[in-house]
Amino acid sequence: MTTDICPCGSGKTLASCCGPFLSGLANAETAEALMRSRYSAYVTLNISYLKDTLWPKNRTGFDETATMQWARENHWTGLTVLQVRGGEAADREGTVLFEAKFLAAGKLHTHRELSRFRKKAGHWYYVEAIPE
């Protein structure tokens, strides 16, 4: 993990970017960092991280098996952050608009989402996708 480039598109190594979040050694300080690390979790098949960083009230509907299958069946090709509002270390809420590209069944797809994040007890969580 020390020399692999982070899947989130930061240009940093995984070890100096999303790796510490994915391994539980550190917490994302911003909503954007959490969103990037969640993308990296899909790429690295770290499904437990996706569940752990989901807003606690939304975890009951999280299907780990289906999420693992979907993540495994796709080839992730890139992440682009288009807009960030709020979500800084001192904030309690923020949104991140992004596009994630992936190959599925031989076709390139783009998942575009405006995500809402909320901080609770010093930890950022993904809450939901909201309309743009």
Characterize the structure shown:
Helices cover 26% and strands 35% of the residues. It has 132 residues and is of the alpha+beta class. It has a four-stranded antiparallel beta sheet with strand order 1-2-3-4. The protein is globular and about 40 Å long. The model has no long low-confidence stretch (mean pLDDT 95).
Question: How does the SSE layout of this entry go?
Answer:
Elements: H1 19-22, H2 31-44, H3 47-52, H4 64-73, E1 75-86, E2 93-104, E3 107-120, E4 123-130
Antiparallel strand pairs: 1-2, 2-3, 3-4
Question: What's the average pLDDT?
Answer: 95
Low-confidence parts: none
How far is it from the N-terminal to the C-terminal residue, by CA? 35 Å
Helix content range: 25-40%
Q: How much strand? A: 25-35%
Strand adjacency order, main sheet = 1-2-3-4
- State the oligomer: single chain
List how many beta strands DSSP finds.
4
Find the structural class using helix and strand composition: alpha+beta
Instruction: Characterize the main sheet.
Output: 4 strands, antiparallel
Order of helices and strands: HHHHEEEE
Total helix count?
Answer: 4
Radius of gyration: 14 Å
Could you say which overall geometry the principal axes of the C-alpha atoms support?
A: globular
